[in-house]
Sequence to fold (426 residues):
Amino acid sequence: MTQHFIDEARIFVRSGDGGNGMISFRREKYVPRGGPNGGDGGHGGAIVLVANPKINTLRAFSRQVHFRAENGKRGGPNNQTGATAPDLAIEVPVGTIVRDDEQRLIADLTRPEQRVVVANGGRGGKGNTRFKSSTNQAPHIAEKGEPGEEKWLNLELKLMADVGIVGVPNAGKSTLLSVISNAKPRIADYPFTTLVPNLGMVRLDYRDMVVADIPGLVEGAHEGVGLGHDFLKHVQRTRVLVHLLDGAGENPIADFHQINSELALFDERLLQRPTVVVVNKMDLPTAQAAWPDLKAALTEMGHEPWQVSAVTQQGTGELVRHLLGLLEEVADSPEPEAVDEEEMPVYDVEMDDLAFTVDKIKPGVYQVQGKRIERAAAMTYWDYDDALMRFQRILQALGISEALEKAGVEVGDTVFIGDIELEWGE
Ligand SMILES: Nc1nc2c(ncn2[C@@H]2O[C@H](COP(=O)(O)OP(=O)(O)OP(=O)(O)O)[C@@H](O)[C@H]2O)c(=O)[nH]1
Ligand SMILES: [Mg+2]
Fold:
């Protein structure tokens, strides 16, 4: 059953903090007060997931759950920039799907060496040299390093099938999978027995392939009718298709057209995928009687149909050999598209970052929450007036000052930005 091939893990990642910027001034003989020379902090290390084709399970993550990248070093005097910390690369199997704690898709790592940054390293704070201007020759302001990000990630490994078996309900897809692979799917003589794709490993002469039995497609599957839509996505990932026909069915050619049109309506490129047309149930006299006409019709459409009986296993060994050979032929062609590109950024990070809320907790006390503003607050050296002014400009730019005023804030009131307490001034 499918469970053998689905592997899950939950990990905690934390990128490095940026190093603090430095406040420092030159000291020279005969110069009472030299110019600013505080250097920037170094950037913190990011956390990166990398797809490694040599790994095939997520088992390693039951041993190690926490991953931390190093912090950037703080800036020094004489305009010395602090050292940037290296990124921490975590290796995962190809086929790993990464989601955040709200189950939002972050990445689908389908190609070897594909990488995704899951937590950005904190930016190094600016040293006071950077704040020098014509009006302020001796800035007493620097930035603290940006804190790293931390989050839980849910990893799921979907073993990708090399071959997908498609066909109308009841064609015998699950039966075929069960006789050629180690999978033991449920088989029954009524349509829609299989509700989720079954995967099986097929081995022959030291070669192997993963075969998926795709639940029976029906008219309208491409529109999301029934369960078809999700399965069609699964079909997109396979390199070779087996189109299985019920040779004893009422009208196998009509079935054939119906499935093809469902595939094409979902994604036209599926019709270009190498496809082996296989007529099943050849042990039954009705199928044998129908075969000559069926074969002629399929040949006319440019196919070379195979005949098998999944139940008696007649012809199935040869079919496996043929599929393995076909896979070798297409091995050099580019990996089929895994997930639609437009599906990738599931939520807009930028918008999330800028959003904030203002709440009046009680008379004279307000609470502001928001990712960007809380970060800016964490990066401010509150002891310096210059830094305070800068923070105020950020409050204005994000529209937070206005929102606070609308909520009724007055001079002297307390405003919390995250956990940081401020007194509202002019
Ligand atoms: N006689 C005969 N019956 C078969 C053969 N292959 C499958 N069947 C029967 O056809 C019925 C459907 O088989 P399944 O393997 O469940 O078909 P399926 O395509 O997976 O069907 P869904 O999962 O419902 O889409 C079962 O009763 C099987 O025993 C075959 O080669 N010969
Ligand atoms: Mg089935």
Notes: The radius of gyration is 31 Å.
